[in-house]
Request: fold
Amino acid sequence: MSLLARLSDYLAQGGWVMVPLIGVTFALWYALGYRLLRLRLGKRQTVHARLERLRERAEGRGTLDAAVVDALRLAAARGPGLGLRLEAWLAGVRGELSRGATLARTIVVIAPLLGLLGTVNGMIELFDSLGSGTVYSQGGGIAQGIAEALFTTQLGLAVAIPGFFVSRMLERREEQLLSELEQAKGLLGGSA
Reply:
């Protein structure tokens, strides 16, 4: 049996709940992939060293370098309101860095609930089969109900657990970036 045929059989045994579970799986990994690309750190170094390096070259690699280059351009203008301009810059960067985080967190919560919904549907099918009274139909109905209950639960957890860990890793990376950007803002004269 080919891999595609086995996958199709697996999805069919899980019932209709498998379709939204597959959909949220793709949405979750799209959001996490987007965040991973946005949260690239670039070269690892202290904030002060990064500022000096980027002052000389005005280009860098990664989200942090790009954000610091923008801050350097703002700071070069000096004048009144520099702190407010840098604060507005940081708020914009903060919004850009968090894009996709809410979607990922929501899916990590929803996936096991969809699995639970499949479990309930499978149990309903199982009890319907038991209620019909015929031994032949009971065997198929019982097996199908149990399969649906287990497969949807399994997929819901298989989506949520790794998604949770990857999402948390990216949240820590976002916090690290924001901390370094706060330091850069302070060094550029943006502290209140």
